[in-house]
Amino acid sequence: MRARILKTSRILSNIAASVAVALTLAAANASADTLNYLLTTANLPGFTGPYAEVTVNRTDGTHATITFQSLTNGGYTYLMGDGGSVGVNVNGAFSLGAITGSNSLSGFTAGPYTNSGSGNEDGFGSFNQRITSFDGWGHSSTEISFGISATGLNSWSSAARVLTPNNKDQFAAIHFFACIPNGANGCTDASPGAQSITGFASGASVVPIPAAAWLFGSGLLGLIGVARHRITAAYRPAAA
Protein backbone atom coordinates (compact mmCIF):
# COMPACT_ATOMS: atom_id res chain seq x y z
CA MET A 1 0.00 0.00 0.00
CA ARG A 2 2.77 2.41 0.93
CA ALA A 3 4.57 1.82 -2.39
CA ARG A 4 1.33 2.41 -4.30
CA ILE A 5 0.68 5.68 -2.48
CA LEU A 6 4.21 6.90 -3.09
CA LYS A 7 3.98 5.95 -6.78
CA THR A 8 0.69 7.84 -7.16
CA SER A 9 2.17 10.89 -5.44
CA ARG A 10 5.16 10.86 -7.82
CA ILE A 11 2.85 10.62 -10.85
CA LEU A 12 0.85 13.63 -9.63
CA SER A 13 4.06 15.57 -9.05
CA ASN A 14 5.23 14.82 -12.60
CA ILE A 15 1.87 15.93 -14.04
CA ALA A 16 1.99 19.17 -12.04
CA ALA A 17 5.51 19.87 -13.27
CA SER A 18 4.49 19.23 -16.90
CA VAL A 19 1.50 21.58 -16.63
CA ALA A 20 3.64 24.31 -15.08
CA VAL A 21 6.26 23.99 -17.85
CA ALA A 22 3.59 24.07 -20.55
CA LEU A 23 2.07 27.27 -19.17
CA THR A 24 5.51 28.86 -18.83
CA LEU A 25 6.42 28.00 -22.43
CA ALA A 26 3.09 29.33 -23.67
CA ALA A 27 3.67 32.63 -21.89
CA ALA A 28 7.22 32.89 -23.23
CA ASN A 29 6.10 32.13 -26.78
CA ALA A 30 3.36 34.75 -26.64
CA SER A 31 5.46 37.53 -25.13
CA ALA A 32 9.09 36.96 -26.10
CA ASP A 33 9.39 35.56 -29.64
CA THR A 34 5.96 35.79 -31.26
CA LEU A 35 3.23 38.34 -30.75
CA ASN A 36 -0.17 38.57 -32.46
CA TYR A 37 -2.24 41.70 -33.05
CA LEU A 38 -5.88 41.85 -34.13
CA LEU A 39 -7.01 44.73 -36.35
CA THR A 40 -10.41 45.56 -34.89
CA THR A 41 -11.37 49.04 -36.13
CA ALA A 42 -12.32 50.10 -39.68
CA ASN A 43 -13.29 53.34 -41.38
CA LEU A 44 -16.13 51.58 -43.22
CA PRO A 45 -19.45 51.38 -41.31
CA GLY A 46 -21.50 48.20 -41.44
CA PHE A 47 -18.65 45.74 -41.76
CA THR A 48 -17.84 43.70 -38.65
CA GLY A 49 -14.29 42.93 -37.52
CA PRO A 50 -11.75 41.83 -36.56
CA TYR A 51 -10.47 42.24 -40.10
CA ALA A 52 -6.99 40.74 -40.01
CA GLU A 53 -4.44 39.22 -37.66
CA VAL A 54 -0.84 40.37 -37.64
CA THR A 55 1.88 38.03 -36.38
CA VAL A 56 5.29 39.40 -35.39
CA ASN A 57 7.86 36.59 -35.28
CA ARG A 58 11.20 37.76 -33.86
CA THR A 59 13.82 35.20 -34.86
CA ASP A 60 16.68 37.02 -33.13
CA GLY A 61 17.59 40.49 -31.89
CA THR A 62 17.86 41.98 -35.37
CA HIS A 63 15.47 39.91 -37.52
CA ALA A 64 11.72 39.49 -37.60
CA THR A 65 8.99 38.37 -39.97
CA ILE A 66 5.66 40.21 -40.14
CA THR A 67 2.68 38.22 -41.45
CA PHE A 68 -0.80 39.61 -42.16
CA GLN A 69 -3.68 37.12 -42.38
CA SER A 70 -7.20 37.99 -43.58
CA LEU A 71 -10.08 37.14 -41.26
CA THR A 72 -13.74 36.34 -41.94
CA ASN A 73 -16.33 38.02 -39.74
CA GLY A 74 -19.89 39.26 -40.10
CA GLY A 75 -20.30 37.29 -43.32
CA TYR A 76 -17.34 38.95 -45.06
CA THR A 77 -13.76 37.97 -45.77
CA TYR A 78 -11.42 40.95 -45.77
CA LEU A 79 -8.93 40.68 -48.62
CA MET A 80 -5.82 42.88 -48.54
CA GLY A 81 -4.90 44.76 -51.67
CA ASP A 82 -4.14 47.82 -53.77
CA GLY A 83 -2.26 50.84 -52.38
CA GLY A 84 -1.12 50.42 -48.80
CA SER A 85 -2.27 46.80 -48.73
CA VAL A 86 -0.55 46.43 -45.35
CA GLY A 87 1.39 48.81 -43.16
CA VAL A 88 3.38 48.63 -39.93
CA ASN A 89 5.27 51.09 -37.79
CA VAL A 90 8.66 49.52 -37.07
CA ASN A 91 10.61 50.46 -33.97
CA GLY A 92 13.92 52.07 -34.91
CA ALA A 93 16.08 51.85 -38.01
CA PHE A 94 15.46 48.84 -40.26
CA SER A 95 15.65 47.44 -43.77
CA LEU A 96 12.98 45.52 -45.69
CA GLY A 97 13.54 41.93 -46.80
CA ALA A 98 11.64 39.67 -49.18
CA ILE A 99 7.87 40.14 -49.61
CA THR A 100 5.62 37.13 -50.23
CA GLY A 101 1.89 36.62 -50.33
CA SER A 102 -0.98 34.48 -51.54
CA ASN A 103 -4.75 34.28 -51.84
CA SER A 104 -6.28 31.04 -50.58
CA LEU A 105 -9.52 31.75 -52.48
CA SER A 106 -10.10 30.83 -56.12
CA GLY A 107 -10.21 33.42 -58.90
CA PHE A 108 -7.38 35.66 -57.64
CA THR A 109 -3.76 36.26 -58.62
CA ALA A 110 -2.08 37.69 -55.53
CA GLY A 111 0.51 40.42 -55.99
CA PRO A 112 3.02 41.26 -57.22
CA TYR A 113 4.07 43.41 -54.28
CA THR A 114 6.19 46.52 -54.01
CA ASN A 115 7.81 48.47 -51.21
CA SER A 116 5.85 51.71 -50.91
CA GLY A 117 7.87 53.05 -47.99
CA SER A 118 6.27 55.31 -45.42
CA GLY A 119 2.89 56.94 -45.79
CA ASN A 120 -0.65 57.27 -44.52
CA GLU A 121 -3.18 54.47 -44.10
CA ASP A 122 -6.42 56.41 -44.43
CA GLY A 123 -7.50 57.71 -41.02
CA PHE A 124 -5.01 55.62 -39.04
CA GLY A 125 -1.93 57.79 -39.35
CA SER A 126 1.43 57.34 -41.03
CA PHE A 127 3.34 54.04 -41.01
CA ASN A 128 7.04 53.77 -41.82
CA GLN A 129 6.68 50.56 -43.84
CA ARG A 130 3.86 49.88 -46.29
CA ILE A 131 3.47 47.18 -48.92
CA THR A 132 1.43 47.81 -52.07
CA SER A 133 -0.16 45.15 -54.28
CA PHE A 134 -0.47 45.48 -58.05
CA ASP A 135 -3.90 46.64 -59.24
CA GLY A 136 -7.01 46.00 -57.11
CA TRP A 137 -9.58 43.30 -56.35
CA GLY A 138 -8.22 40.62 -58.70
CA HIS A 139 -4.72 40.84 -57.20
CA SER A 140 -5.72 41.00 -53.54
CA SER A 141 -4.36 38.60 -50.92
CA THR A 142 -5.43 36.63 -47.88
CA GLU A 143 -1.83 36.56 -46.60
CA ILE A 144 1.07 38.97 -46.96
CA SER A 145 4.41 38.40 -45.24
CA PHE A 146 7.75 40.20 -45.24
CA GLY A 147 11.01 40.20 -43.35
CA ILE A 148 12.65 43.14 -41.63
CA SER A 149 16.14 43.57 -40.20
CA ALA A 150 17.22 46.05 -37.54
CA THR A 151 20.08 48.23 -38.78
CA GLY A 152 22.72 50.41 -37.19
CA LEU A 153 22.70 50.10 -33.41
CA ASN A 154 19.04 49.11 -33.34
CA SER A 155 17.89 45.75 -31.93
CA TRP A 156 14.67 44.23 -30.59
CA SER A 157 14.71 42.54 -27.18
CA SER A 158 11.35 40.85 -27.77
CA ALA A 159 8.54 40.56 -30.31
CA ALA A 160 6.72 43.28 -28.38
CA ARG A 161 9.56 45.70 -29.23
CA VAL A 162 9.55 45.16 -33.01
CA LEU A 163 6.59 47.47 -33.69
CA THR A 164 5.83 50.80 -32.03
CA PRO A 165 2.75 53.05 -32.05
CA ASN A 166 2.61 55.71 -34.76
CA ASN A 167 1.25 59.26 -34.47
CA LYS A 168 -2.28 57.80 -34.10
CA ASP A 169 -1.22 55.15 -31.56
CA GLN A 170 -1.50 52.38 -34.17
CA PHE A 171 0.92 49.51 -34.79
CA ALA A 172 -0.40 48.11 -38.07
CA ALA A 173 -3.12 48.59 -40.69
CA ILE A 174 -4.54 47.11 -43.89
CA HIS A 175 -6.37 48.30 -47.00
CA PHE A 176 -9.12 45.74 -47.52
CA PHE A 177 -11.73 44.58 -50.01
CA ALA A 178 -14.90 43.12 -48.49
CA CYS A 179 -15.98 39.88 -50.15
CA ILE A 180 -18.65 37.27 -49.46
CA PRO A 181 -17.44 33.64 -49.25
CA ASN A 182 -19.52 31.58 -51.69
CA GLY A 183 -18.27 28.05 -51.11
CA ALA A 184 -15.77 25.96 -53.07
CA ASN A 185 -13.08 28.37 -51.84
CA GLY A 186 -14.62 31.18 -53.88
CA CYS A 187 -15.42 34.77 -53.01
CA THR A 188 -17.98 37.23 -54.38
CA ASP A 189 -17.54 40.99 -54.49
CA ALA A 190 -19.61 42.54 -51.70
CA SER A 191 -20.96 45.09 -54.21
CA PRO A 192 -21.76 43.13 -57.38
CA GLY A 193 -22.19 45.32 -60.44
CA ALA A 194 -20.48 48.24 -58.72
CA GLN A 195 -17.00 49.23 -57.66
CA SER A 196 -15.59 46.93 -54.97
CA ILE A 197 -16.22 48.04 -51.40
CA THR A 198 -12.90 48.96 -49.81
CA GLY A 199 -11.79 50.40 -46.52
CA PHE A 200 -8.89 50.60 -44.09
CA ALA A 201 -8.62 48.81 -40.75
CA SER A 202 -6.32 49.14 -37.76
CA GLY A 203 -7.02 49.43 -34.03
CA ALA A 204 -4.37 46.80 -33.36
CA SER A 205 -4.72 45.06 -30.01
CA VAL A 206 -2.46 42.32 -28.63
CA VAL A 207 -3.99 38.84 -28.66
CA PRO A 208 -3.58 37.38 -25.14
CA ILE A 209 -3.12 33.72 -24.25
CA PRO A 210 -6.70 32.40 -24.07
CA ALA A 211 -8.12 32.82 -20.57
CA ALA A 212 -9.62 29.34 -20.80
CA ALA A 213 -6.13 27.86 -21.15
CA TRP A 214 -4.90 29.64 -18.03
CA LEU A 215 -8.05 28.69 -16.09
CA PHE A 216 -7.78 25.06 -17.14
CA GLY A 217 -4.08 24.87 -16.27
CA SER A 218 -4.50 26.65 -12.95
CA GLY A 219 -7.52 24.52 -12.07
CA LEU A 220 -5.65 21.33 -12.92
CA LEU A 221 -2.72 22.36 -10.74
CA GLY A 222 -5.15 23.05 -7.90
CA LEU A 223 -6.84 19.64 -8.21
CA ILE A 224 -3.45 17.92 -8.29
CA GLY A 225 -2.47 19.75 -5.12
CA VAL A 226 -5.66 18.68 -3.36
CA ALA A 227 -5.16 15.06 -4.46
CA ARG A 228 -1.57 14.98 -3.19
CA HIS A 229 -2.68 16.45 0.13
CA ARG A 230 -5.35 13.77 0.57
CA ILE A 231 -2.96 10.96 -0.33
CA THR A 232 -0.38 12.25 2.13
CA ALA A 233 -3.01 12.66 4.85
CA ALA A 234 -4.32 9.13 4.25
CA TYR A 235 -0.83 7.68 4.74
CA ARG A 236 0.13 9.83 7.73
CA PRO A 237 0.02 7.76 10.95
CA ALA A 238 -2.67 8.75 13.42
CA ALA A 239 -1.54 10.74 16.45
CA ALA A 240 -1.05 8.66 19.59
Task: Walk me through the structure.
This protein has 240 residues and is of the alpha+beta class. The chain folds into two domains: 2-25 and 212-235; 36-209. The chain contains two helices and 17 strands. Strands 2, 5, 6, 7, 9, 12, 14, 15 and 16 form a nine-stranded antiparallel β-sheet that branches. Strands 8-13-4-3-1-17 form a six-stranded antiparallel β-sheet. Residues 19-31 have low confidence and may be disordered.
User: What is the number of beta strands?
Assistant: 17
Largest sheet report: 9 strands, antiparallel
Strand content: 35-45%
Cα radius of gyration in angstroms: 24 Å
Helicity range = 10-25%
Please report the distance between the alpha carbons of the first and last residues.
21 Å
Low-confidence stretches: 19-31
**Structural class by secondary-structure content:** alpha+beta
H/E order of the elements? HEEEEEEEEEEEEEEEEEH
The figure for the number of domains is 2
Discrete helix count: 2
Mean pLDDT: 82
In short:
This protein has 2 helices and 17 strands.
Give the secondary structure arrangement, pairings included.
Blueprint: H1 2-33, E1 34-39, E2 41-42, E3 52-60, E4 63-70, E5 72-73, E6 76-80, E7 86-88, E8 94-102, E9 113-115, E10 119-120, E11 126-127, E12 129-133, E13 143-150, E14 172-181, E15 187-189, E16 198-202, E17 205-206, H2 211-235
Antiparallel strand pairs: 1-3, 1-17, 2-16, 3-4, 4-13, 5-6, 6-14, 7-12, 7-14, 8-13, 9-12, 10-11, 14-15, 14-16
